[in-house]
């Protein structure tokens, strides 16, 4: 089980959000071969990144690692040079936006789908 929140963890909202995957490798227990092997990238603050590839190449796994739904065996995912494990999980997930390849809209307006029940101003949404 991945830890949800802890007062002793770092607050990610105080970082510059320089994200680095450094030689990330990951295997599911049910698979004989790794999904990711020495996978690396750097995402600079304010920039976007698209993970593109064939089905099964590790795109979703990389996102699950980044959002802490899966855990790396080593500290190879870093935010501003600090292991992702050191950051509060709940606060981290609130800061990360992921656009899936499969669109999913809930009942309601586009605005309500974007806000997901949180009180955002019009300017924050745009």
From TrEMBL:
Lineage: Eukaryota, Metazoa, Ecdysozoa, Nematoda, Chromadorea
Source organism superkingdom: Eukaryota
Membrane-topology descriptor: Multi-pass membrane protein
Subcellular location: Membrane
Predominant place of localization: membrane
UniProt protein name: ABC transporter domain-containing protein
Keyword annotations from UniProtKB, A to Z: Membrane, Transmembrane, Transmembrane helix
A Pfam cross-reference name: ABC_tran
SUPFAM superfamilies: P-loop containing nucleoside triphosphate hydrolases (SSF52540)
GO cellular component term of the entry, any: membrane
Domain ABC transporter residues, every copy: 36-113
GO MF annotation: an example: ATPase-coupled transmembrane transporter activity
